[in-house]
Amino acid sequence: MHYAAIGDSFTEGVGDDLPDGSVRGWADRVAAGLAEAEGGPISYANVAVRGRLLSDIVTDQLDEVLALRPAPTLITLNGGGNDMLRPRTDLARLADLSAHAVRRCADAGVRLVLISGADPSAGLPLGRVVHRRAEALTASVATLAAAHDLTFVDVFHDAEIRRPGYWSPDRLHLAAAGHRRAAGLVLAGILGTANHPAVDPVLPVPARGPRVELGYYREHVLPWLGRHLRGESSGDGLAGKHPDWVAVVPEPSRT
Q1: Which residues, given as ranges, of the chain have pLDDT below 70?
Q2: CATH of domain 2-195+239-248
Q3: Domain boundaries, the chain
Q4: Mind spelling out the 3-state secondary structure of the chain?
Q5: pLDDT tens digit sequence for 23-58
């Protein structure tokens, strides 16, 4: 198996921090789960980069992984989250971009798995707007997957992962527990199993009083607004963490 992941911060693994400052994330965890299912090493590439729009993902990133040799046998695609945060979102164009990726993978003979991102809207400013847009995009991707008989993993409607304890302090990215939950959902979809991922014990989060909210806006919202006003992205200058195939072996069993 040669598994490649394309996407934005969700697929890169932002929020699932390792001791050395790098990130792991659900896609890395899925790769390890696939190796366990295969009973041996698989090849894995991940070119997802935080801040990327769907247009970047289904053109540059998809081109990059389809050019890998050996060619990928499996690609996971999630995108559109950053498009949702723009002042204006063209949902019809996002649907067309997703359809473009489906055609490219079909022409290349590669299995494509479409994934909706987790729903962060409960904790975000203007969360109702984000939720409405993301709900429409999720429905569009689900319809596209059904029309082409593709696997669709609906993380967006998973009620468990919406609990605050699954999220990072920025309320936009999943924490390690959230990435573990997402990985379980994706693995179940890819492998076609009925096993639902176990509920992960999560730590309680502070009540959102005025002091907590003030700190949240100062630490996370205002820097994000500043970057966007300057036309900058958190992913500027970054490249995918695994642009070439790396070997992933089954993780040792925990006793």
Answers
A1: 194-203, 206, 253-255
A2: 3.40.50.1110
A3: 2-195+239-248
A4: CEEEEECCHHHHCCCCECCCCCECCHHHHHHHHHHHHHCCCEEEEECCCCCCCHHHHHHHHHHHHHCCCCCCCEEEECCCHHHHCCCCCCHHHHHHHHHHHHHHHHHHCCEEEEEECCCCHHHCCCHHHHHHHHHHHHHHHHHHHHHCCCEEEECCCCCHHHCHHHECCCCCCECHHHHHHHHHHHHHHHHCCCCCCCCCCCCCCCCCCHHHHHHHHHHHHHHHHHHHHCCCCCCCCCCCCEEEEEEECCCCCCC
A5: 999 999 999 999 999 999 999 999 999 999 999 999
